[in-house]
Amino acid sequence: MEQAVRHPERFDPREGEGTLIDTEHRARYWWASRAVAGRDVLDAGCGVGYGIEILASAGASSVSGVDLDPAAVEEAERRLGGSAAAIVEGDLQDLPLDDESFDAVVCFEAIEHVEDGGRALAELRRVLRPDGLLLVSSPNPDVYPSGNEHHVHEYRPAELAAAVGEHFAHVKGYRQHAWLASTIEPADPDAASPAGERRERAEIRRTAGLEAGGETYGIVAASDRELPAVRDLVVLGSAFEVDWWSEQVTGTENHARQALAQSAAREAAATERLRETAAALLDANQELAQIPLLRHRMEVLQEQYDHVCELCVEMQGSTSWRVTAPLRRLSHALSRRR
User: Which is deepest, 116, 158, 164, 238, by most CB within 10 Å?
Assistant: First the structure.
């Protein structure tokens, strides 16, 4: 297996084949490939070129690619050989391409990376021939996981349709979303469809719906002529592994139990600290309650002391105190000799 180009925002189907992200990316191109037969097509934001391969195999007259990443352009050229008309390095906001060069342009999961989405859409319109078809997508920020540092602006489905509608007469929105699925097909391996084959005969039934704006990705088709009818598409990835998901659920439950136990322990410790604090506060309040009584007692003692001092002054100023002074001195001398 060839080594894939590694970039935090560069999808390569050679990594994680059959995963959800693989299914989401290739589904968009398989869906678009139904509308490109006999057309000159541009893949704007082509990455390593897997979409060019899908579009070319669907009968497009020619498929070209443009991408901002020189490493991806080099890899796409090496990988595709002569199956692409041209693959060039360029910015969506300033495409190095001539006016009215293509009958169709696909721009999947790229518009959210540019600073000026309106300018990029104007450029995509410029390189389209009159009555050309544009297919463009963006993750829906109301559903798509947040925090992608490489995304400048993610468009809500209605917002994307409105932005595209400023450049085209006819606009139609499509919804792309991941679902749990259960398939029934022939048990004979020779009768089962290989990866990538379209099973248009399959019937689709739903057990759950999707509210407006609840899709993970919004896709918009636009043109100045009546839009072609593009059939719905369901793409299935790897089989749903019940055991694997059971392990994930069990692991999640164990983690939740541990987190709950830790939370309960922290709550118990906090409750004990609160009890101790409340007891200390009660003791402090009781001590504070004694302060008025102690202050009153101090005032009474002060009054008694002042009274005694007044009596001493009066006594020392009396005639009897002066007359008995020699007796007190004699008594003091005798007590010292004893």
Answer: 164
pLDDT, one tens digit for every residue, the chain (338 residues): 344 344 446 777 777 788 888 899 999 999 999 999 999 999 999 999 999 999 999 999 999 999 999 999 999 999 887 789 999 999 999 999 999 999 999 999 999 999 999 999 999 999 999 999 999 999 999 999 888 899 999 999 999 999 999 999 999 999 999 888 888 888 876 655 656 555 566 788 888 888 888 999 999 999 999 999 888 888 888 877 666 667 777 877 788 888 888 888 888 888 888 888 888 888 888 888 888 888 888 888 888 888 888 778 777 777 776 777 777 777 777 777 76
Domain count, the chain: 1
SS3 string, 114-164, reads CCCHHHHHHHHHHCEEEEEEEEEEEECCCCCCCCCCCCCCCCCHHHHHHHH
Q: Is the residue at 299 inside a domain?
A: no
Q: How far apart are CA 65 and CA 77, in angstroms?
A: 10
Q: Note down the domain range covering 132.
A: 20-238
